Amino acid sequence: MTDSIRVHGGVPLRGEITVRGAKNFVSKAMVAALLGSTPSTLRNVPDIRDVKVVSELLRLHGAGVDYSVDSGEIRLDTTTLQSADALQIATHAGSSRIPILLCGPLLHRLGEAVIPDLGGCRIGDRPINFHLEILQKFGAEVEQGGDGLHLTAPNGLTGIAHTLSYPSVGATEQLLLTAVLAKGITTLDNAAVEPEIKDLIDTLQKMGAIISVDTDRSITIEGVKELRGYDHTALADRIEVGSWASAALATRGDITIHGAQQRTMGMFLNVFRKVGGEFDVQQDGIRFWHPGGDLNAIPLQTDVHPGFMTDWQQPLVVALTQAKGLSIVHETVYENRFGFTDALVAMGAEVQLYRECLGDKKCRFGQRNFRHSAVISGPTPLHAADIEVPDLRGGFSHLIAALAAQGTSTVSGIGIIDRGYEAFRHKLTALGAAVE
Ligand code: EPU
């Protein structure tokens, strides 16, 4: 398979596609299976690269992983775990950010963990200080080896009282996956409560965990001695839904997304409507379309749940280049998530980046030299260009820009998009895109 795609743009995307389980839940649920003393079954699993990476890591630890692409079912047998070879673990360095979440489950099941150096998208510094602080508080000893992190827990893991300085998704998951089998009670204040985290809590509850979430975003976990496997159907990938919906808007198209769930899309749907897009929530999905006429420029700020999620920002910004007036976007989750706009500017968009916070939401990046606010002036016709994909969501956004632009673009490095968008080449063709 080649790593670039030629896009003959200017054709509205029209048709129907299906979106399956959320990348940012499925990978974590697979890790959760490590905690169970009996096998687990996860349903609605998409065929994406992150699932392959986690499958490999689980296999290296002696787990049985049996995935059917057609049914979307993955069976995980973690009854016979064993420590993995550090050199083999190291071959997964840079492939994903999920491995850091294996720490707690492996410490509980095997008494030790070796974690490769992490990958993931370069959209900011993406440190792991919150994760390490949590693990050390639980009683883990952490050493940095040449091949990654080595962790042990000589005295076992004991519940903690912890407050996050920022409601990090991964750190909240780290704490959950460690606390469920730790001795005693764990409390977390300022937790992230994204729908994917709620689905992880539901999964852990099926396994036998005792977890309560309060209205003030605090979580209490009562450690139990043993967990069993689960049978769970993953929630839909709301980032993928938002991405295709933005593609419908930017190309003046009409896309019905089977599997899309309104309950996870609330904030996106509000913004989509304000921009001037139309949607219709149906029995098994949502139809998104451009109703004709002008789109509206809007002010927008990304935030943790229940705010407008950062991963929706990049695809929507492409549609905002086609809206009439000045849109102002303040990114408050990552300090460096506007790099992808360079390519949009090269294609004719008018986007100015600012170091200042252009919005009233509390943000860690003001006065710190990060260009984390954008002013987009539209509508500007986009013209074709040769583009190199920078990261997962930025890459999909480039694809949208190429689809909206007049002329033939070449988008290179599209392998990155396979990390999180199932069968996107096939879906493009199904929607009538002229791509090779
Ligand atoms: N942060 C720290 N220290 C830490 C951890 C995070 O400073 O130890 C900071 C980050 O640098 C960032 C902020 O906290 O500025 C939020 O990061 P978070 O931990 O919430 O993100 P994550 O768990 O690494 C997940 C998703 C991201 C998504 C974010 C926010 C996965 C695998 N990734 O990342 O998804 O943007 O939550 O919702 O679940 C994507 O799918 O393309 C993607 C980047």
In CATH, what is the class of the largest domain? Answer: Alpha Beta
What is bound: which ligands? uridine-diphosphate-2(N-acetylglucosaminyl) butyric acid
pLDDT < 50 runs, ≥5 residues: none
Fraction in beta strands? 15-25%
The largest β sheet comes out as: 5 strands, mixed
Can you say what the CATH homologous superfamily of the largest domain is? Enolpyruvate transferase domain
Domains (count): 2
CATH second-level architecture of the largest domain? Alpha-beta prism
Give a concise summary.
With about 425 residues, the chain is of the alpha/beta class. The chain has helices spanning about 25-30, 50-60, 85-90, 105-110, 130-140, 170-180, 195-205, 240-250, 265-275, 310-320, 340-345, 390-405, 425-430; strands spanning about 5-10, 15-20, 40-45, 65-70, 75, 110-115, 140-145, 150, 160-165, 185-190, 210-215, 220, 230-235, 255-260, 280, 285-290, 295, 300, 325-330, 350-355, 375-380, 385-390, 410, 435.
Could you explain how this protein is built, in words?
This protein is α/β, with parallel strands linked by helices and 436 residues long. The chain has two domains: 4-19 and 236-435, Enolpyruvate transferase domain (UDP-n-acetylglucosamine1-carboxyvinyl-transferase, Chain), CATH 3.65.10.10; 23-233, Enolpyruvate transferase domain (UDP-n-acetylglucosamine1-carboxyvinyl-transferase, Chain, Alpha-beta prism). Helix content is 30%, strand content 24%. It has helices at residues 23-32, 49-60, 86-90, 103-110, 129-138, 169-179, 195-207, 238-250, 266-275, 310-320, 341-346, 392-404, 424-430, and strands spanning 4-8, 14-18, 40-43, 64-68, 73-77, 112-115, 141-145, 148-152, 161-163, 185-189, 210-213, 219-222, 231-233, 254-258, 278-282, 285-289, 295-296, 299-301, 323-330, 350-354, 373-378, 386-388, 408-412, 434-435. The strands form six sheets. Strands 17, 18, 19, 20 and 21 form a five-stranded mixed beta sheet that branches. Strand 4 (64-68) and strand 5 (73-77) form a beta hairpin. Helix 4 runs parallel beside helix 6. The structure holds uridine-diphosphate-2(N-acetylglucosaminyl) butyric acid. Uridine-diphosphate-2(N-acetylglucosaminyl) butyric acid is lined by residues 23-24, 97, 121, 124-131, 166, 168-171, 192, 239, 309-311, 333-334, 392-393, 420.
